[in-house]
Amino acid sequence: KRQYCIGGEDVRDTQVWENGTWNADELKAREQIIYYFYDYVHDPEGYPKNSFMTWKAKKDLHNPAI
């Protein structure tokens, strides 16, 4: 709610806007990266032991956005 109030977007909203610049796949990838990052921060083998990209590779997670 706070992010919305300061102008942030709900990244869980993957509906394509009529005149938007993001397509459906990009919106889904954007949403997924937030979930990956949350897992990374809370994983004992994640932050600060490993960089996000190293952690992601070890977990064999795929996201075309990154």
Q: Largest sheet, if any? A: none
Structural class: mainly alpha
DSSP strand content: under 5%
Q: How many E strands?
A: 0
Instruction: Note the overall shape.
Output: flat
Average residue pLDDT: 88
Cα-based radius of gyration, to the nearest Å? 14 Å
Q: Which residues sit in consecutive blocks of at least 5 with pLDDT less than 50?
A: none
Q: Give the count of helical stretches.
A: 3
Helix content: 40-55%
One letter per element, helices H and strands E, the order comes to HHH
In total, the number of domains comes to 1
User: First CA to last CA: what distance?
Assistant: 27 Å
SSE order and pairing:
Blueprint: H1 2-5, H2 24-42, H3 52-59
Compact summary:
With 66 residues, this protein is mainly α.
Structure overview:
The protein is built from 3 helices and no strands. By secondary structure, the chain is mainly alpha-helical. Helices cover 47% and strands 0% of the residues. The mean pLDDT is 88. It has one domain. The protein is flat.
